[in-house]
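Moderator note: this is an archived Q&A kept for reference. The question asked for a predicted structure of one protein chain; the sequence and the answer are reproduced below.
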Amino acid sequence: MQILFIIISAITLVSAVLVVSVRNLFHAALYMMLSFLGVAALYALLESGFMAATQLLVYIGAISILVIFAIMMTRRLMQTTESPFNSQWGMSGFVSASLFVLIGAIVLQVYPLDPAVAGGAPPAEELVTNTVNQLGVAFTSADQLVLPFELASVLLLVALVGSIIIARPDVEAEVEDES
């Protein structure tokens, strides 16, 4: 089981590195799908079937396909003569390092390096107990997260319709060009 975990983790990590290092945008999207598939396999190994199914349906089935459609529909926009390098690499590196330090500090507060400080047992069991049930209740309860959940779905729908409208060829302009 541990060897399978190491193999799946290696595939996930290698594909994640390839997402950000490959120059071809379409290949990067395919590597992103492979990385998402690896994460779903890791969830399955952790016996979290709900999270694995969610990863498959939402990220691979919806988000990745949406990204690939966007790449394919805007392919003509990608044929520019601009420099392929980002001119803001210094600022993005600084922001990434700062976020890494901040997340590391938060993780160290939850899971200290010294087990004596943590009170002997890690708090993970209290945090993870019935998480899926609590999340389901929170998403469907009228006084908790149902409104933000519905607003996020409407926002995603508006973004999808907007991207289709932007990517759609202008039929009237093509008729005028022909005459």
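Archived answer notes: Residues 111 and 122 are 7 Å apart (CA to CA).
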